[in-house]
Amino acid sequence: MEQGEILKLVSSLKLDAEEDEYVLMVGDISRMWERKLNSCLACKVLSSKAMPRDVFRSQLPKILQVVENVNVELIENNIFIVEFSSLRDMKRVLTNGSWNLFKNLVIFIEIQESSNISSLNFNFLELWVQVHNVLLSCMNRDCAEIIGNRIGWFSEVAMGDKGVCWGRFLRIRIVVDISMPLKRLVKLCLKEGSTPDTLLLQFERLPIFCYRCGMLGHQVQECLEEATMDDEGKEVLKYGVWMMASPGANRHGMFGWVEWNGMKCVGSTIKSITMFS
User: Fold this and answer.
1) How far apart are CA 236 and CA 229, in angstroms?
2) Distance between CA atoms of 78 and 74, rounded to whole angstroms?
3) Which of 90, 121, 122, 265 has the most neighbouring CB atoms within 10 Å?
4) What tens digit of pLDDT does each residue of 123-136 get?
5) Closest C-alpha among 39, 37, 82 to residue 57
6) What strands lie across the sheet with 79-84, from one edge to the other?
7) Which pTM value belongs to this model?
8) Positive or negative CA dihedral for 32, 37, 40, 46?
């Protein structure tokens, strides 16, 4: 039986007096371990294959480029707790993703005091998306927020001091639900009844994903969705490498946001994504 099923079964049992008593955690002990928890992140490697702890421990500092040491502990299949010596490193890991190891997505989330393994929710990923074929009149923060919320949940946008985002594309940071397929495009109308423009989406630092179903974490040969074939018996793929962006002109630096080519990152005041269920 799964742990959740066992807990549900036990919670329905009639307890005797001794079992119904609870243990109270002493305040000093609770505060000490809460401080330790504040320097840790939970992370999950999104892969159908198990990631060995020793391999993950040796490779993680390289992909994160941390200044100080990190300690890694395996708590469940492909789920790890990472303890940071530097809070600055930890903050950068949370804000500068997405991250991948051997092309497999690695999702980091904060740990709450009330969290246990079953409550950790790795379904949300924050990443940069380049939106191409945008009308010049829409290259501003207001339009970027509307478009970002169509793709997922808007977080911030790379833009200039005057609120415009002139460039080859809009560069928007969004939160996406990885339990759903990636979006391929957005259709945008300037006014009701006008012909919509097709905006193409390209995701930065995109790890392994399926060209058949658009889901992160597996490839076509592992996909359970039925293939669509053309008249010649060849598979028609709905997604492809064209969704993977080349490095953008306006990038963020290793230690926080920087200004390049007069572009800055401006955040949203309405961002509200719950990372724990």
Assistant:
1) 5
2) 7
3) 90
4) 999 999 999 999 98
5) 82
6) 70-76, 79-84, 40-46, 104-110, 99-101
7) 0.73
8) positive
